[in-house]
Amino acid sequence: MERERKKGYAWAISAGLNAALAAISAKFFSSQLKYALVVFFNVIMWGCYFNSMKSLSSLQATVTNFATNFLSSGLSGFLLFEEALPIKVIFIHSFTSFGKADTHHPLII
């Protein structure tokens, strides 16, 4: 069971990284190559996301995917495109990332 959950998190992280790669390729490349790469990375991202939901709840998969995408997109924007990285972004991401730590328990509404 624990091994399956780790595989699920690996798939969710891969999904987030592929989503960030789609955004990076949209900014980094021009012409038809840009559109082809965006579609390619998004298709890979959806495949990884669906695989992550085989082992994780939809909440765990979504939050892990989002947190990875958010962090990697922000860092790539800062490192590759010299965009500002305000403290507000870091603060929001820390709540998103660390707030997902205990999402394996059922959500009680």
Please give a structural write-up:
- It is a single chain.
- The chain is mostly helical and 109 residues long.
- The protein has one domain (2-102).
- The protein is 79% helix and 0% strand.
- The chain is flat, with a radius of gyration of 15 Å.
Pick out its properties:
109 residues, mainly alpha, 4 helices
User: Number of domains in the coordinates?
Assistant: 1
Mean pLDDT: 83
Number of strands: 0
- Biggest sheet layout: none
Keywords: Membrane, Transmembrane, Transmembrane helix
InterPro entries: TMEM42
Transmembrane segments: 32-50
Helices, strands, pairings?
Layout: H1 2-28, H2 31-52, H3 58-81, H4 87-99
Helix pairs in contact: 1-2, 1-3, 3-4
Quick description:
With 109 residues, the chain is mainly α. It has helices spanning 2-28, 31-52, 58-81, 87-99.
